[in-house]
Amino acid sequence: MRYKFLFLITGIALAVSCNSPQKDYQFTTSDIESHIDTLSSDYFLGRMPFTEGEEKTVAYLVNEFQKIGLEPGNGDSYIQEVPMVSILTQPSETMEIQSAKEKISLNGLQDYVFWTQRTDSAVSFQDAEMVFAGFGIVAPEYGWDDYKNIDVKDKIVVVLVNDPGFGTEDASFFKGNTMTYYGRWTYKYEEAIRQGALGCLIVHNTIPAGYGFNVIQNSWNSSKLYLDDRGKEGYKLAFEGWVTLPTANRLFEMAGLNERELLAKARKPDFQAIPLNLKASSSLKVEATYNTSQNVVAKLTGEQNPDEYIVYTAHWDHLGVGKPDASGDSIYNGALDNASGTAALLALAKAFKESKTPNRSVIFLAVTAEEQGLWGSAYYAQNPIYPLEKTVANINMDGINPYGKMKDVSVIGVGQSEMEELLDVELEKLGRYSAPEPNPVAGYYFRSDHFNFAKVGVPALYFHTGIDHVEKGKEYGKELQDQYTAEYYHKPSDEYDSSRWNLDGAVDDVQLLYNIGQNLANSNQWPAWKPGSEFKSIREGYMKK
Ligand SMILES: [Zn+2]
Q: For residue range 400-415, what is the model confidence (pLDDT) as tens digits?
């Protein structure tokens, strides 16, 4: 077995070095294996922000970047501090709803879940008017505005999950079943904030949401992490939350409406928000705790265009020590998620340092607090060390292939940017190919750190391991992935085990990530967003000279 794989790797090495002399680095499993093994060991305590696990992880990363010989990426420091606040919302048990005819009481947790980003010690609202605002979307590129001709200031907006394209089987209407950012729950709250609403309730529905109400119930009465924006805070909703579909139907009925008709209306571009003539009252208590975590950043200065940047990212954090599993293990090691991507980041840093210095600068950014809301990358994107208009692209890694060699990679968010073409060119040279992600409905594009770069307009590339196993085919590859999701994902069992892991495919993927970055770092190319991308106008806004 081993000999055969070694032979394959050597074969690829020859092919690549003949084609493009600049790619003088050939990865092997030893570039990544020990980093995965180390970072996912119990010593790092599951790499939870604000804990001893963070201190150990950050120290390890800084030490490795120093050993490699990279410069500090933030002035004379390898650290970018990320101030955060943990907000514990204790909601009152009920929400009262008053119509012209009757008054009902909804039960928290069972009928709805809500929380707040406000840090005041208590938040309450009395007889706040409720408005049905369709999908709660303002999307200029689709000529769409659910908030036209209505003022929702101081009102509670009730909106549908996902976007109007979902379930229409029409790929040209929004993106059909592929979720646009307008379909994500985070977007709904962001837009409600821009509209000055008092609160926002999303109507839950398992299929378009991609997960059950139980997932949302887990956030009841628990703390959530946010960036600490004291001193520059903007408007925040009094509360954000979800209602179950049966509860929403009850409210619509009280208003003399029904969900089916509302959905049909909400799918039309001439949709007009509908006041429900219902008034809601409830309150919540808040406890805010402030704490600082750390992004780790290293830099390789380019030779000809040092003020243009390629940024590689991987989140170093995971879930720490928590609820024990059946075997009594309580350390969430996060070997795949994301000791593996962090290991790849270190391997890439070493490879770039040992290769001919590229024309553009290359930044290696290990971000914190991905698991609790992509906060480390959000902080970087809002406080970029390197100007966004000089940042050529982001290449993100969140989990690398542990299953052995694959013919394909699975591109998250197909059709977004020209980074995909750069990927395809390099894949083809290696005799491999790209495939769209198997489950675009889940909106994975919005669920890792590259998304925060996209949100500020920087073209971002993110792919998962493929499923087309070189020796055993697609079904086998799919089976391994499903097994990972069921047995290891976000569980204490996500550990490194050399008998279970086969890093030969990871080596291929890291080589690919390297080749793409090298090409870009040695070109004058500025990959753009594709027409129809929700991020195109953001980029063009600040790139216009
Ligand atoms: Zn992850």
A: 999 999 999 999 988 8
